[in-house]
Amino acid sequence: MKKELLKISIIFFVTVFAVVWALNYIYFGQAPRSKAAGETVSLSFSPPTVSGTTGLTTTIKALPSAAITLRGYKFKVNFDKSKVQITNIDYKIGTVSLGLGDSNSTLSSVNTKGVIAVQGEIYGVGQPLTTSLTDVVIITFTSTTASSTATITEGNFYIIGADFSINPASASASNSLSVNGGTGPTNTPVPTVTPGGPTLTPVPTITPGGPTLTPTPTGAAGNVNLKMKLKFQGIIKKPATDVLNKLSVKVKLLNGTTGQETTYQAAEFTADDQGIWSGSTSFNIDVNAKYILYVKGPYHLQKKICDTGPTETTGGTYRCTKSNITLKNGDNDLNFSGIVLLAGDLPDQDGSVTAYDTSFIYNNLGKNNDKCDVNRDGTCDTQDFSLVIAALSVKNDEL
Amino acid sequence: MEEKNKTIFIYLLVIFFAVFVGTSIFLILNNKKPPAEKETIATTVIIPTVKPTQGLLNLKLFGNEKISLSGDKELKIDLVADSNEKNIVGYDLVLSYDPLAFDFVKATSNLADFKIYSYKRDGYLSFLATKTLQSQTSSVFTQTKIASLSFRPMKAGKYSFSLKPLIGKDKTNLVTDKTEVLNPKLNELEIEVF
Q1: Helix (DSSP H) and strand (DSSP E) numbers for chain A
Q2: For A378-387, what is each residue's pLDDT tens digit?
Q3: pTM of the entire predicted model
Q4: Strand pairing of A40-46 and A166-173?
Q5: Contact A302/B at CB under 8 A
Q6: ipTM exceeding 0.95?
Q7: Quick one: chain A helix, strand, coil %, rounded to 5?
Q8: Chain B interface includes A63 (CB < 8 A)
Q9: CB within 8 A of A11, min separation 6: which ones?
């Protein structure tokens, strides 16, 4: 009987082991388990303290506990809507999840609720993140003179595991953002008032039937005034009428040291007999830093300019990466007419030359439609079409 | 005989019990998270982008589902479109693919009065096609093969080519002669390289 019991016990344990092993093999095979489980992501504001009232910028950075491949992310940024108003949300990892994440198209809702729902996604194979700080989103805002705090809550990062499954990793804030409204930017020298010095930012003039522009915030007069000369593709002489001889151009600056961007300022440009366009705008910035300047014309792709006197041998081929532009308080003469701003991104602009842009000209050939009169000759014609086709060598805004 | 049957019965009973216990252990060990949570996560991550325009409006990928790595064989994928009886004068396309598995060779317009421009991006391709100014004909697409894309396979395996409504600044749409922007229904194609 004892022998019988021993036999049954052995059969029992062998069977149990075999069943457990078989089920484990069938369901999990040799595939490695996802390494995503247990990962965390730390989110932080950089800089954590911002002073001033307009053009304030902070970057939310992510620091994973281990190297990960990111598929998407979402978290919320809470701010005091009575003291802070968001003016720009710039996703640096992937793109905003349309309909779910907040972007510049939902700013009014963001400022009404006092919450930014940051939600982005990365298509394809995902984006690898190392264990160093990575920019997730750059937020630009204005503040009243009172102080306030912004915080990050409800965070999740979605990680692609080794077995290609998607797993959530909880994200938590390591700091909060203090906004010292109205105390003025740190280390910003007092503007020197020179004769005929800083001019107020011009408000874009919308002429009847003129170009439709995306509204851009126009801040107060800054300590630095940029007097720029530009050359636009396809315009080789002064347009025939005053109405045609006006272009509203958007300009912004990127501080090469801090990585902070200003908001776009609008400037009105007029052309001389040689087709060189002049205009000015001002910014309130730190003059000790070096800058990259971004210029976007009303029918044009955005141009990234890093040098004070850029040149190129073929129109539209100038490229740069390093910030070399130094600015001083007061007037700064910047001659960018050695390079050409390519046309193609017609109103309403979306940062890219698309089939909408080419089709708009195609459908309005011979008509007096200002929206596609790229070369400012008063007619939307085959020349405008050809200019846009030529800009397809670049297609998207330079970032 | 009766004794033998009794032994077999006990053995079967033990096996049944062992399977029961084994399954229980397996389920307990692996049921760390409720399945409902996983579904919620998947729903959160798969994000809708652009709502397709109503009507018969499609952009479909067609091609061989299998291709050999040997020789200089190229994978040809055709783009077939329906334009809901609208006259199309331009279109944009975004095609996601694995650039490590396929080398994009060229895009050819199958319509003589359309010129296609292609752009290699990070993990996807962007195309823009525009009607030539000389064209006098209407371009209503009804299961029309509008373009062909050629790829050279580089790695064995199963891969997906997928038309996307939007990636970054690049988008997929059709534009009519009234400058109306249409968002077609899109599909994806599974290709096996052996």
Answers
A1: 4, 20
A2: 999 999 999 9
A3: 0.56
A4: parallel
A5: no
A6: no
A7: 15, 35, 50
A8: no
A9: B11, B14, B15
